[in-house]
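#onboarding

Welcome to the new folks! Below is a worked example of what a typical request in this channel looks like: someone posts a single protein sequence, and someone else replies with the predicted structure as tokens. Don't worry about understanding the tokens yet, we'll cover that in week two.

Example request:
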Amino acid sequence: MADNVVSVFTFKSAEMILQVGGPQACTLDRVRAKACKYAVVCRNAPYPDVDGPETHGSVFMIGKVSDVVPSTEPEGRWLILFSEYALCNFGDQWEGRNPVRFRTTDDYDFDFKDLEFQPMPEASAGEAATLKGRGLTIAEAKAGLSLTFGVDPSAIEITIRA
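Example response:
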């Protein structure tokens, strides 16, 4: 049976993705993305500020999705956190115009089982790396918790004790 995949189109480098814990600034359905086993990262080479040598539309990184959390840039977008990643080079794997696509492992012409996954670097593993950026506002925390628990943000109360 095929596993679910979220595919993202980015101009950012593999190093930057590893530094923040996964691809970010994604506009997507968090619940659907979190249900994916893998995230496939494809190169958007024509972008003016592209930061990587890969050819347009090629897959240069694949990660195992551990969580989807609010992005550190820009507000209102998502960061797909990886537990493990594999660097690769599979050409011409992107289709469509939207920067996020939901697919399955059967849609690719390579076998995910052949990839050699490595643990994420210590500095970027987990939500702690995400929070070291600019932190969260109360509204962002409520929005994230409302998605996690399936309740309206107005039903969440947050108490801070100093």
